[in-house]
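Input (structure):
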């Protein structure tokens, strides 16, 4: 597994690193407050939290260009915030408000911010993998060098569309980066119960003629490094890269998951290695932050999220008539 040693030369500037830390803390706070609001029935529908996986999204999106495309599955809050989505729009979406990023009609699983190149939030497992190839194809066809990064879970490795798309993306040398967020579990099913081959790096790369790269994404700078190389390849016309990013989610699959498939010990151990706390310690070691800076960031993040909640609470509900809008390009008329 690729590993950046603490003493190795950092690949980021101090400002960028502190920005990444802040973003990870913002995502964590957004989700902690979302969980509370869910319990208080202010948020409804499905809700899948990303806690524990933050450095994966932040470290990879953090090295892409602003005009690159980002697309992901339903566990999407982290990617959207890493992409720079205003948390007010995210929180309003969670609460089904008209001011939400998807006008309150998508909810937690369908964040969307086309202006920022954030192309969703997709609930059907693996369904967005071909869409990513489509965006990469559009970029190439139009003579641009925009890259599309596509995230999906280990469960999506078994979807037929992935295999068809990987073959085509590689044959056409599309500028796409495929990242499997391997948290070792699909809902409550461990990888060894769903995959005949456990080495996903080997499964997703070489068989399709693209590099397969394994990375421990708890190490945000290692995640950044492999993404940079994949983006360079894509922009140079060398085609797609498959990245297996090992990760761990601290929460259940969704809000109603009793997590019977893992022991308390396993979870406690993982939480002791919280990647956000680890990065705080690394930045302190480097002398890039001190206790006072950390307190300031913590307070700022808390305030930003509380303001987002107030904004969402004060926003109007999405009106019933709006349910038939934004379905098709032309106005949609419901059948009797
Ligand atoms: C095509 C399809 N089949 C089944 C489901 C139900 N489902 C929702 S999430 C999920 C597990 C996906 O796990 P994984 O891809 O590993 O992502 P993670 O939740 O770990 O991020 C399943 C089977 C679905 N949404 N789409």
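Output (sequence):
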């Amino acid at each position: 597994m690729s590993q950046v040693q603490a003493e190795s030369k950092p690949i980021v500037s101090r400002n960028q690193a502190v920005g990444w830390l802040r973003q990870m803390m913002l995502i964590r706070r957004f989700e902690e407050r979302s969980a509370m609001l869910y319990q208080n029935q202010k948020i409804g529908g499905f809700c899948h939290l990303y806690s524990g996986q933050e450095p994966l999204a932040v470290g990879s999106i953090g090295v892409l260009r602003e005009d690159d495309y980002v697309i992901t599955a339903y566990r999407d809050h982290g990617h959207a915030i890493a992409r720079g989505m205003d948390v007010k729009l995210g929180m309003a979406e969670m609460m089904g408000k008209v001011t939400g990023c998807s006008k309150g009609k998508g909810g937690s699983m369908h964040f969307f911010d086309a202006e920022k190149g954030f192309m969703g939030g997709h609930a059907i497992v693996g369904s967005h993998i071909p869409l990513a190839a489509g965006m990469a194809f559009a970029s190439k066809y139009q003579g641009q060098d925009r890259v599309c990064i596509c995230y999906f879970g280990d469960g999506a490795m078994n979807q037929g569309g992935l295999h068809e798309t990987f073959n085509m993306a590689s044959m056409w040398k599309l500028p796409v980066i495929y990242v499997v967020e391997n948290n070792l579990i699909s809902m409550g099913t461990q990888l060894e119960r769903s995959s005949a081959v456990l080495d996903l790096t080997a499964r997703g790369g070489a068989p399709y003629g693209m590099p397969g790269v394994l990375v421990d994404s708890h190490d945000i700078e290692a995640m950044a490094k492999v993404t940079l190389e994949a983006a360079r390849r894509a922009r140079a016309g060398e085609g797609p890269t498959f990245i297996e990013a090992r990760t761990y989610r601290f929460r259940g699959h969704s809000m109603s998951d009793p997590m019977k498939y893992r022991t308390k010990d396993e979870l406690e151990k993982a939480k002791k290695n919280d990647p956000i706390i680890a990065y705080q310690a690394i930045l302190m070691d480097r002398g890039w932050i001190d206790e006072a800076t950390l307190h300031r960031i913590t307070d700022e993040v808390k305030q930003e999220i509380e303001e987002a909640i107030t904004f969402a609470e004060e926003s109007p509900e999405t009106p019933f008539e709006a349910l038939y809008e934004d379905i098709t390009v032309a106005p949609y008329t419901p059948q009797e």
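Notes: The first helix runs from residue 14 to 39. The pocket of thiamine diphosphate is lined by residues 75, 123-125, 153-156, 181, 183, 185-187, 253 (CB under 6 Å).
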